[in-house]
Amino acid sequence: MIHQLVSVKQVPDTTNIRIDPETGSLIRQGVPAILNPYDAHAVAAAAEWKEKLGGKITVITMGPSAAEAALRECIEMGADRGILISDRKFAGSDTLATSYVLAEAIRAIHDEDPLDLVLFGKQAIDGDTAQVGPGAAVRLGWPLITYAFNIREINLDQRYTLVERRTELGIEVIRAPLPAVLTCEKEIAEIPYAPLPQLIASLQYEPELWSAEEPVAYDVTQIGLKGSPTWVAKTGTPEQHQPGETIDVDEVGVKQAVEDVMKKMLANNSVVSVLEG
Amino acid sequence: MTRRFWVFLEQTSGVLHPVAGELLGVACRLRSEIADELEESGDDAIVEGILVGHNVTDLAQQAMQFGADRVYVVDAPPFRHYLNRPYTEALVSLVKKYEPEVFLVGATTLGRDLAGAVATSLKTGLTADTTKLEMGIARKNPNKLLLATRPAFGGNVIATIVCDSRQPQMATVRPRVFDMPPCATKVSGEVIQETIEIPPEMMAVEVVEVIAEEGSKVDIEYADVIVSGGKGLGNPDGFQLIKELADELGGVVGASRAAVDGGWISYAHQVGQTGKTVRPKLYIAAGISGAIQHKVGMQDSDFILAINSDPSAPIFEVATVGIVGDLYEVIPAMIESLRERKGARA
Question: Residue B210: inside a domain, yes or no?
Fold first, then answer.
């Protein structure tokens, strides 16, 4: 029997975010909040191993009450217990403070019901920092395997896991003692189709609510704005580029369009240096 | 007082990653940006490299050619292969000993794995994937701070992040975001050997095997020519045509997130916020609409040619030249034109 924990985040679907061309500000209205895609695959991986070894999956998330929806989605995929860590005192937490909140929650869960594996998505698509998983692993003092894309083996008797991760040099096969912390690529597992009873159960599921005091009494100097050494000094929209010339094939024909483009390319020193080199 | 600007000198198998050189260039510039403060206070500032590995001490020389005044070297068998725990231990020990003000790490697979662990151990701030770094005044702080700018929300927002209460101020930077500084032929500098004890329990994780992977070696970050394809190819086979044009130009194949998510091509080819940042001399985007998250990864290319049948595609906003038309007509015509040109030259 294996006890796995997956830490997930609800994020705005960044593929649907648009900038208001008039004001230059972010249009968040109507942008759906989704379960961070990498986290969804991590939950799917946990579900596969629960299927193989038996056991249970605990899912945690830190966020506003609306993040319950993300937990329900995890229940639908096969998680057994969902915990929403939510408190206004957490507002403004950066990656350092967030890793503290999550690591303390994971430790509390582990003390009560020992964990074998902790999974994170490799990064959240809103912040793209990839820092919270490694941060939590360090705080827990557990082995960290980032960019995992395949769990080859989990051996509960000998207390180790064999995990494949992708690096610039190729695939590394890592052996780590349990409990270990993984941050997962999407290839870690396919998102399953939920069987109907699971789907119904998820709709009725009420996640547990954890605050900044209960059941973990957080150190207020380590959470929220106070516990966050980084802060945002300025935000803006990306620089607008001066668009170049476009040539329409319908107007000039393919041959002429390509000829014109080749001429422009050959008038550029950079391009010439690679084409003549 | 000595104000220290640190760069992690990433190496694998005794080869220095180019991002180490790029970051030394950045560190030297950052130091020059506090010249006024140094003059006033009488402090000095120094650019230092941190080199960890086994049989790697020779690389310190290269770091000095790129501007390091001093290199601290941790050279011992436990550091032969990168492992998070021992490397974190080494960096954390050195930071505690020397107290650098700024610490820059490459945003590579290794660097991201390491920087998050180091920053958390030190309880300091870390800004990931920065695209602009400068020393400047923020929030009434008497001294200049590292102003670290990065894209967020898939590149839709640019945020400047500051860490004023803790040190070092840490940031990761992707390869290719900054220029490689000129490489000096004669250098002077100091190499300091450091010994870090690694207790056996920190070696509990082991690399059992490394499998070279087909396609993982596509080095799009440092390619001079990239031809990228997106969903506009219509199907995965479209990448054969992309490859043909890339081969003709002596370049490599890139891809949009949509094409990678669709399973048309491997992640190693992905350009953009969730892929690689590239800056080739020639970038050709074919059938790529140009979502902001793609543009932030390629907009600094020297020459951008966009080919798309939709004249309103955002990719044209960053293109040097755009062709509105069917890529299946345009690319074969380009290949033909390039071949004719080659024939004429031969």
Answer: no
